[in-house]
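Chapter summary example: a protein plus heme C.
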Amino acid sequence: MKLILLLTLLLSTQAYAQNDDEGHGGSKHQESHEHEGGKHGGGHEHKGGMMHGGEHGHEDGENGGHGHGGGMHGGGHGMNNVKQFFEPLPASIIDEEKNAALIKLGKMLYMDPRLSVNDKISCNSCHALNNYGVDNEPTSPGHEGKRGGRNSPTTMNAALHIDQFWDGRANDVEEQALGPILNPVEMGMPNKGAVVQKIKAIDEYKTLFAEAFSQEAYPFNYNNIGVAIGAFERTLLTPSRFDDFLNGDEDALNKNEKRGLKKFMRMGCTNCHNGVAIGGNSYKKIGLVEPYETEDMGRYEVTGLESDKKAFKVPSLRNIAKTAPYFHDGSVETLDEAIKLMAKHQLGRDHVGHGMIRDIKAFLGSLTGKDQ
Ligand code: HEC
Ligand code: HEC
């Protein structure tokens, strides 16, 4: 008798706890968003703090989700939950005035092929600023045309991600920038000292480094190259019409795009693609529901954790309409195909209709930067 009582008590507490979760889910998410909004300075600081609120969206999608995270725009269209999942881009994540010299230097380094061993390859070769930060190649030709096994992600908005690279092996854009210069299939420089010597011998850099690192006795060091390039990359934000929508302009999206947004939330894409970058804030296995063929072990190579096999950083979907081909190996040519594969492998939806794909694609198109 006592045992049954205890069990009932336990079960009901659990049920209560669950209800409680549901009931306050909305406001919790909002808080976590606002929290992040306050410290965009370090994209990597977001680590681990993200949500798993997709299920909520699923339920709320149709009926407007009243009672969840009230007080936002776009009400009355079944869109009340939009702000639980997404956050508009901040105006800026680096003080561009105060860091003007540093950013100027960073941009010059980013564009400069002299950072490569044969003076041919710059960051911009694979992450073209006039092409949404990508080269539209499945994998990128680097030093002597050699290619790595992964697709070049865009540098646009990348500073907002929890970590850098598909497997997150660099903490932030400053650390990341130091990798490709020495990578034999990218810019192919032999070692740090050689890079510093080469840059130091270029006249323009003498003034630029001195200005950018005016407090330092020896501004020329390898690390500072990363600091400067990273500062420049922090300026690469691409506000889109979707940001206007999140900021209260209901007409910023057309009917198809709004329908696509609802479907994107209702289907559960927001389980993984959420937050300020609509992705970029967590690691998830490719083939979560239906196994996906790939040799690349992704995050596992960084952590050695069994659960990280085939896990990749969830890509940001900002500018996604412009950054084909898709996936970590660039094996998926079209956005239609990427959406279909996602529905199947990540959500177990084998047969998504043409209309579903068309609408979601329309929504994704609204994530393209306006001033590009
Ligand atoms: C030869 C082509 C190539 C060059 C040159 C190159 N990159 Fe990359 N970049 C890549 C590839 C490929 C990846 C993904 C590699 C991975 O995840 O393992 C990448 C990843 C990145 C990322 C991570 C983005 C994200 O979403 O995780 C950033 C940022 C970046 N590169 C910036 C730079 C900078 C800065 C330079 C110049 C110092 C540079 N790249 C030079 C090809 C290139
Ligand atoms: C369980 C997490 C999860 C869910 C749910 C999910 N995705 Fe993804 N998405 C990922 C991961 C991880 C990748 C990277 C896969 C890879 O490269 O191997 C990705 C990649 C993508 C890409 C390609 C991005 C690029 O830059 O190459 C698109 C487009 C995309 N997802 C859209 C969607 C859409 C639309 C939905 C809903 C139908 C969805 N995703 C649902 C985790 C998820």
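Key point: The pocket of heme C (ligand 2) is lined by residues 267-269, 271-273, 284, 286, 288, 312, 314-315, 317, 320, 323, 326-328, 338-339, 342-343, 346-347, 360 (CB under 6 Å).
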